Amino acid sequence: MQYRAVTSAASRPRSSDHIVVQNLVKRFGDTYVLRDISLTVRRGETAVIIGGSGAGKTTLLRILIGLEKPTSGSVFIDGVDIAPLHGRDLDRVRKKFGMVFQYSALLDSLTVLDNVAFPLREHTRMKPREIREKVLSMLETLGLRREDADKMPSELSGGMRKRVALARALMLEPEIIIYDEPTSGLDPQTSRMVDDLISETRERFNVTSVVISHDMASTFRIAHRAFLLIRGELVASGTPDQLADPSINPISHEFIVASGVSWDRISRPPPPRGT
After folding, report:
1. What's the whole-model pTM score?
2. What does the alpha-carbon distance between residue 59 and residue 51 come to, in Å, rounded to a whole number?
3. What proportion of the chain, given as a percentage, has pLDDT over 90?
């Protein structure tokens, strides 16, 4: 699959384009955080947005889910530009997203079951018994035991916390899962487990995945497409192998070399369903 940049505000997303960012600019006063960003994430694929600290990754994430407004440009989700939306119109689009936060962001005062059930209690009229069964079923699907539902977050390993956070994100059956630095602070073995979990979730639930990361080993394991941000500019896009090829983009090649990852030894993800 080849990357197709969106360069014109007149371009309209295709049905296979789940997220389309067009000529996006974000400025705080005179300071540009994002400069003319255009990218496409296709339905059912895993896209990884990489870059060092201060590259603009977090700001881009916040704009994608409607927590920040761009200074200019468009963000199409399923063909709907969310940039001008407010209130209920924006909330309807936000329901398409599930979010897995950095360090999981579980509520320490709640059990696993209550953490995972939180979106259902807030946004649905399901009965308590229905909520409990749906939570337990999801925990089992993600490799946790029913008895884990009564544990507190402090009793869980790092990998288990990620599974619980993902279960919570999936409760409202979103079309898109956003992962914010999912392997940050994890040991290599747990990081590999989280990578496998992201790939398995995409395949099992047929979701589009967007991962914000600085972990190059993870990027090569899970990404169908990667986007490199440096100082608020999109300097490279394509498959991870294309980004690593100095004949295609020497800037991204240099970034990957500096990360120290041996990309030739890392397995690549299978293509998205339907491609």
Report:
1. 0.89
2. 12
3. 80
